[in-house]
């Protein structure tokens, strides 16, 4: 049977849960007419289909305002759609003062890039190049920001270069541990988590290391999808690899880490340290 948790990662067969390439960005569709995206207060919206040569097209948006302090390249969770993320974009804009650039994953919002591992590996550098070619990355600091499963594509974008810092919210590269968190507690002792060989080539942790930029990891202490213990282990592994990684644990659960003052303070402090601050 198929077990779909918050991140939609697992296929259960007997007592083995296999995490495969289709788990990264499961096929999803909005029901009814997609809502209009309203930009944050003071921001203007540019919405386009961007060409990724050899891969397809991606539906992307840029929200910009006069006097913004840099550019935030945002990768949402694996259940996200650009058109339904207005509230989160408003929160990010108020918190950072940056321009916000976001995009839809394969099979969503008109994005035609296939959800295959080879295409997903190539998508990070292609997105970074496309955002630059569109004039969406202004001079000044550029941050990649990944929420939940978006940490992997955000790190892939950062590894392509031209990024000042990387923010990873409620995310970790330990896919088996995250998968185990999504199995109901009473079943965990009986379920073995396996990662499909093909998916292992989508090297989340390697992308973070190769980006060679400071990294902020933020996790809610009550997060049950990507728990603080898993993120702490991720942070320690990155530090051992020579990454300038800072871990901040804040109140809240999955998706709540930047709702409170502690999360906002952590992100603002990191942006200030890595070249821009907020205005």
TrEMBL record:
Q: Superkingdom of the source?
A: Bacteria
Note whether Hydrolase occurs among the keywords: yes
Keyword terms, alphabetized: Hydrolase
The protein's matches in InterPro entries, at most eight in alphabetical order, are given as:
AB_hydrolase_fold
Q: Which GO terms of the molecular function aspect are on file?
A: hydrolase activity
The entry's protein name is Alpha/beta fold hydrolase
Q: Lineage, please?
A: Bacteria, Pseudomonadati, Pseudomonadota, Alphaproteobacteria, Sphingomonadales
């Amino acid at each position: 049977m198929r077990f779909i948790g918050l991140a939609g990662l697992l296929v259960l067969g007997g007592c083995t849960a296999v995490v495969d390439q289709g788990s990264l960005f499961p096929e999803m569709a909005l029901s009814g007419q997609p809502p209009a995206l309203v930009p944050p207060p003071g921001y203007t919206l540019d919405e386009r289909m961007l060409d990724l040569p050899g891969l397809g097209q991606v539906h992307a948006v840029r929200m910009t305002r006069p006097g913004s302090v840099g550019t935030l390249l945002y990768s949402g969770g694996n259940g996200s759609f650009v058109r339904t993320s207005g509230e989160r974009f408003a929160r990010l804009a108020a918190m950072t003062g940056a321009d916000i650039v976001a995009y839809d994953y394969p099979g969503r919002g008109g994005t035609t890039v296939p959800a295959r591992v080879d295409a997903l590996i190539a998508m990070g550098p292609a997105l970074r190049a496309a955002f630059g070619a569109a004039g969406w990355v202004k001079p000044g600091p550029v941050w990649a920001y990944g929420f939940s499963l978006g940490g992997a594509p955000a790190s892939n974008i950062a590894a392509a270069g031209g990024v000042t810092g990387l923010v990873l919210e409620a995310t970790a590269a330990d896919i088996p541990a995250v998968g185990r968190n999504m199995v109901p507690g009473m079943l965990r002792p009986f379920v073995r988590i396996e990662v499909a060989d093909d998916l292992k080539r989508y090297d989340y942790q390697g992308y973070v290391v190769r980006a060679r930029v400071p990294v902020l990891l933020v996790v809610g202490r009550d997060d049950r999808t990507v728990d603080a213990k898993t993120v702490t282990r991720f942070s320690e592994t990155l530090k051992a690899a020579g990454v300038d990684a800072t871990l901040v644990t804040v109140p809240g659960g999955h998706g709540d880490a930047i709702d409170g003052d502690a999360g906002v303070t952590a992100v603002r402090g990191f942006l200030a340290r890595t070249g821009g601050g907020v205005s």
